[in-house]
C-alpha cells in the first residue's frame, strides 16, 4: 500500500489496531471476528480481517485489541448540555410539569455555567464512546453572555465533534407558553442571533468539528412566525433544522387547540418537514405521520430513557425504520436522563421497544448499534464522513473492552456490547486523535470538571433561589 505524504514530503502518521473484533456498520453490516483498522492521519485507511498489512510506513502506534470490539464512534442526536446543572430535580413529573418546575432555574444560566455543564455533559458521553454530539441549546437569558461561544470553546477542549442546534423561544407565559417572560427572546432577536451563530461558527467542510443548526425549541414555546422564518433562514444558509416534535399527548392536544391540527401537519405547514430536518422524540406518531416523515426524509432522534423518565410513551421506532425514516439515538438533557450516557441507550432502545407492539421482533443488537452510529450520522447529515468503519471516512472509532467479568460469558461481541453492562472504553478516536484512553478523558482532568460543575450547579441554585 502506497504511503501518503504531505506537501513537504513527510510521511503520514499511522495508528494500527489489531487482534480485535470489528463491527463496521457498513451497508452490508460487515463484521470480523479478528481484524484490524489502520488510521492514516485523520482518516480510516483500511479495515479488514486478520493482521494489518506489513511494511506500513509512518506507524507511530500499535494497539493490541485482544478482547475488544471496535465500532464506529457513537453519534448523539439530541441533548441539552446546560441541564447537567439541574440533575435529580422534579423526578416525578411529566413533561409539561417538569418544564414549568425547571424553567425558572434554567432562565438564570450564564456563560460560565454553560461551559461547565457542556464539559460535564459532553465529557460523560465521550467517556462512553460518543464521538459526535448534537446539543439543542434554546435558553438565552438576557445578560447571560456569549453562550454559543462558551459552549463551543468548552466542547473543543473535550475534543468531540459538535452540532450545536441554536435554539430559541419567543412564546412565554404571557403568550400561552411555558417559559417565564424573562427567559425568551423576541422573534427578530432570535432569528438574528441564529444567523450570527451560523455565520460565525458553522463549518461545512469535510471533517468539520462544528456544525450549526437552526432550532426553534418546540411548537408550544415558539410562534408560528419563528417556525416559518427559522426554516427559511436555515435553507437560505444551507444548514440543518432541529426541534422537538410529538413528544407527549399534552403536546398533541396543545397543537390541536392552538393550530387546529396535529404536530406533523403543523410542521409541514410551516416548512418543517424535509431531509434537512430532524425531530426529537416523535413518540406519538400515527401511520400518516410516519408516512409523511418517510416521504420527506425527515429524521428522528429517539430518546428512550428520557421518554420513560417523563412518562411520555414508547416511540414507534420499528415502524419508522420499516417505512424508511432516518432514526438515531439521543441522550436528551441530563435533567431527564441523569446518567447522561448514550451507550446505555443502545440497550434501553432495544428493551423499551420490545415492550411495544412488535415485542421481541422490535429491535435486535445490531439494529440498536446501527441506530447509535450510522443512524445518528444519517440524522445529522454526515454519513459521508462518520457512522461506519470504511476506508476514506473520518477515523472516529471506539475500542470497547469486553474481556472483563461483566461480559465474560457472552460469546458474541455485539450482543455483549448492547445487552451487557456498560463496556469500558480503552481507546476512542475523533479524527485519529485520542479523546479517551483507558476509560479516562484524554484532554481534560475529570476531577477538575466535576468540581467546576458542582460549584456552578450550586451557584445556579443560589441565584434561582434569590440568594
Average pLDDT over all residues: 95
Helicity, as a percent range: 25-40%
User: Radius of gyration in whole Å, from Cα?
Assistant: 22 Å
Q: How much of the polypeptide forms β-strand, as a percent range?
A: 15-25%
Overall morphology: globular
Tally of helical segments: 14
Number of strands: 17
The parts where pLDDT drops under 50 for at least 5 residues are: 1-5
What's the end-to-end separation, in Å? 66 Å
* Structural class by secondary-structure content: alpha/beta
Question: Biggest sheet: strands, sense, closure?
Answer: 9 strands, mixed
Description of the structure:
This protein is α/β, with parallel strands linked by helices. Helices cover 35% and strands 21% of the residues. It is built from 14 helices and 17 strands. Strands 1, 2, 3, 4, 5, 14, 15, 16 and 17 form a nine-stranded mixed β-sheet that branches. It has a four-stranded parallel β-sheet with strand order 6-7-8-9. Helix 2 runs parallel beside helix 3, helix 11 (343-353) packs across helix 12 (365-379) and helix 12 packs across helix 13. The radius of gyration is 22 Å and the shape is globular. Residues 1-5 have low confidence and may be disordered.
In short:
By secondary structure, the chain is α/β, with parallel strands linked by helices.
Provide key terms for this protein.
single chain; 467 residues; alpha/beta; nine-stranded mixed beta sheet; four-stranded parallel beta sheet; 14 helices; 35% helix
Amino acid at each position: 500500500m502506497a504511503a501518503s505524504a504531505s506537501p513537504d514530503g513527510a510521511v503520514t502518521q499511522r495508528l494500527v489496531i489489531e487482534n480485535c473484533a470489528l463491527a463496521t456498520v457498513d451497508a452490508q453490516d460487515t463484521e470480523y471476528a479478528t481484524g484490524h483498522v489502520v488510521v492514516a492521519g485523520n482518516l480510516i485507511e483500511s479495515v479488514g480481517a486478520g493482521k494489518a498489512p506489513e511494511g506500513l510506513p509512518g506507524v507511530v502506534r500499535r494497539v493490541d485489541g485482544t478482547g475488544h470490539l471496535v465500532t464506529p464512534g457513537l453519534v448523539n442526536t439530541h441533548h441539552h448540555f446546560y441541564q447537567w446543572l439541574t440533575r435529580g430535580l422534579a423526578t416525578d413529573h411529566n413533561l409539561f410539569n417538569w418544564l414549568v418546575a425547571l424553567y425558572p432555574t434554567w432562565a438564570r444560566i450564564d456563560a460560565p455555567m454553560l461551559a461547565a455543564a457542556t464539559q460535564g455533559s459532553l465529557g460523560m458521553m465521550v467517556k462512553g464512546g460518543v464521538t459526535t454530539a448534537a446539543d439543542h441549546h434554546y435558553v438565552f437569558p438576557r445578560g447571560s453572555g456569549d453562550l454559543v461561544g462558551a459552549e463551543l470553546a468548552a466542547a473543543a477542549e473535550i475534543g468531540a465533534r459538535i452540532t450545536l442546534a441554536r435554539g430559541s423561544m419567543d412564546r412565554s407565559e404571557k403568550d400561552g407558553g411555558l417559559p417565564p417572560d424573562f427567559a425568551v427572546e423576541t422573534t427578530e432577536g432570535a432569528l438574528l442571533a441564529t444567523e450570527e451563530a451560523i455565520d460565525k461558527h458553522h463549518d461545512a467542510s469535510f471533517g468539520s468539528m462544528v456544525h450549526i443548526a437552526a432550532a426553534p425549541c418546540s411548537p408550544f414555546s415558539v410562534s408560528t412566525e419563528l417556525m416559518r422564518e427559522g426554516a427559511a433562514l436555515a435553507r437560505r444558509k444551507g444548514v440543518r433544522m432541529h426541534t422537538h416534535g410529538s413528544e407527549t399527548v399534552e403536546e398533541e392536544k396543545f397543537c390541536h387547540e392552538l393550530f387546529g391540527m396535529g404536530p406533523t401537519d403543523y410542521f409541514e405547514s410551516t416548512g418543517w418537514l424535509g431531509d434537512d430536518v430532524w425531530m426529537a422524540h416523535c413518540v406519538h406518531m400515527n401511520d400518516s405521520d410516519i408516512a409523511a416523515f418517510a416521504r420527506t426524509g425527515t429524521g428522528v432522534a429517539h430518546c428512550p430513557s428520557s421518554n420513560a423518565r417523563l412518562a411520555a410513551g414508547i416511540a414507534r421506532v420499528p415502524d419508522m425504520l420499516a417505512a424508511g425514516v432516518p432514526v438515531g439515538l439521543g441522550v436528551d438533557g441530563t435533567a431527564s436522563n441523569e446518567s447522561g450516557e448514550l451507550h446505555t441507550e443502545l440497550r434501553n432502545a432495544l428493551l423499551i421497544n420490545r415492550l411495544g407492539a412488535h415485542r421481541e421482533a422490535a429491535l435486535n443488537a445490531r439494529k440498536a448499534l446501527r441506530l447509535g452510529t450510522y443512524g445518528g450520522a444519517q440524522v445529522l447529515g454526515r454519513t459521508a464522513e462518520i457512522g461506519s468503519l470504511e476506508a476514506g471516512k473520518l477515523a472516529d472509532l471506539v475500542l470497547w473492552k469486553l474481556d472483563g467479568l461483566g461480559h465474560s460469558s457472552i460469546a458474541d461481541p455485539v450482543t455483549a456490547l448492547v445487552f451487557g453492562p456498560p463496556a469500558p472504553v480503552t481507546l476512542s478516536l475523533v479524527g485519529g486523535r485520542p479523546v479517551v484512553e483507558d476509560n479516562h478523558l484524554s484532554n481534560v482532568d475529570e476531577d477538575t470538571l466535576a468540581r467546576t460543575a458542582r460549584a456552578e450547579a450550586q451557584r445556579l441554585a443560589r441565584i434561582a433561589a434569590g440568594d
